[in-house]
Amino acid sequence: MRGFLIALMLVVAFMAGGMTCGTTQAIAGDHPEKDPAHVLTPEEFEATRQVYFDRCAGCHGVLRKGATGPNLTPEKMIPKGNKKLRDMLWYGTAKGMPGWGKMGVMTAEETDLMVKYMYNEPPVPPQWDMTAIKDSWKLIIPPKKRPSKPEHNRDVDNFFGVVLRDAGQVCIIDGDTKEVISTVDSGYAVHILRMSASGRYCYSIGRDGKATMIDMWMKKPETVAEVRCSLDARSIDVSKFKGYEDKYAVVGGYWPPQIIVLDGNTLEPIKLVSTLSYTYDTEEFHPEPRVASIVASHTAPEWVLNIKETGQIWLYDYSDVSNPSIKMFEAERFLHDGGWDASKRYFLVAANARNKISIIDVVDRKFIANVDTKGTKPHPGRGANWVDPEFGPVWATGHIGDDVISIIGTDPEGHPENAFKMVAKVQALSSGNLFIKTHPKSKWVWVDHPVSKKEKNRTTLGVFDKANIKAGIFKTVKVADYGKAVHMEYNKAGDEIWVSIWGNLGDADKGKAGEIVVIDDATMKIKTRIPNLLTPTGKFNVYNTVRDLY
Ligand code: DHE
């Protein structure tokens, strides 16, 4: 009876939407062998499970088997002991784990509870199948009731979709006038946005797996459909190949680990594919192979899906969407974020816990290489592409755990000696980098440091000169005196670079919940600020996102 009640509580907690993992097992008292000092009350367990989901699950997995961060199952944790675990949680580690206590994100009490939580078995969350997905689908404004042409004279191509992360909202900003023209609710701790191939719709994915779509042709852009695809997710993309524009969207689930294909006009769920499989190298079954980054091919009706824990890159042919053929490449563990080279033929993705960049060729449909970045935890976002005077076309990544930028040649035709090799490693300002960005029209490469151990670096951007990358940092630009400067994006013209200041939701009345800083790319001077935004993080310009310009 008790087990039934707990399971019921779990499903109710999940359905409530905010968060996602419940527990069927690791409630206080379920482990007779357990040290009484490790026991959490059910309330403490639930509160700590939520903190774990918010702060830890992304890197370590819901089942705590490890990915970007190490395995945290009780047999690994118990030998470490209270002091070591507490210090790691409070101060972070040299390998890139943030110091949650020191950064003011976790309180002393939460830290102590988290230490105890580590000694308990991880709870197994429920499944979320097609029936549940279909039940959650809401077609708010059907296609026939939407405008047949834009209801405004604004340039939709220069709109920015902005993630208001902790508010669980998305806002649309007119890149020409800098006006916030609409703010709509989206998923919990909404994560990324992508634009439909026509540039009309903006799709969001929340950490609760909720996908939403916003129609940017409406006078005031509104959400026209939503669906909960999974209980935990990070990625979404669209069909971009000619003839399939705006036809499909695809969501990558963290939990359950699955791929969900949706109708691009309505978000009606079409197809569900599990990623449960075997690790590419040891061929061991993995219960949680999460879908990390997704990109849409421009040269075929295909998506590139990165299956984190099994280290496989999947090329999903959506031309027969319900009967897909999926080509699997053995790449490397644990795949995370990545992007195209400038030609859109090669896809480069970080296997960040192995310090590698895995590369595939989508035209010849073959795996190319795992390139060692010689740095700890590469984290490119989608990376940055430019033509180096010496090395030719290159793509670059920064690192979470190292103060270096690694540059990889991407032109096997013109520069075969440099192709798919690390051609240079240059000094950056700091570790704690998450994103790197450039634009074909810019002379610069911009790098953020939002998780730097040094507070002052978190709001300072590093700028590198494409003409002389080997010289290291050309200039630093301080953009705020609070929060974290995170994620850069160019406007359509490629002459402004926008960066988010991710503040605290609780500081909204002090004007410190966040803003976007708009920088003149040529002079590197701050041009304007878009204030009073609630915790902005990722931002995506329609024109650049559709074309994968970075
Ligand atoms: Fe992200 C991209 C996962 C934490 C902001 N992030 C991605 C992608 C993945 C991912 C798989 C690639 C999506 C794609 O291209 O399809 N992110 C995770 C995590 O698992 C992790 C480490 C921990 C977690 O619990 O979520 C995590 N991410 C963060 C943050 O803390 C950031 C800075 C703010 C936030 O939202 O919480 C953050 N991630 C972003 C952004 C992108 C992203 C802005 C898209 C970058 C781009 O330019 O495409």
Automatic annotation (TrEMBL):
Keywords: Heme, Iron, Metal-binding, Signal. Residues 43-122 form the Cytochrome c domain. InterPro entries: Cyt_c-like_dom (IPR009056), Cyt_c-like_dom_sf (IPR036909), Cyt_cd1_C_sf (IPR003143), Haem_d1_sf (IPR011048), Host-pathogen_enzymatic-act (IPR051200). Residues 1-28 form the signal peptide. GO terms for molecular function: electron transfer activity; heme binding; metal ion binding. It holds the Pfam family Cytochrome_CBB3. PANTHER family: DIHYDRO-HEME D1 DEHYDROGENASE, PROTEIN NIRF. This is Nitrite reductase.
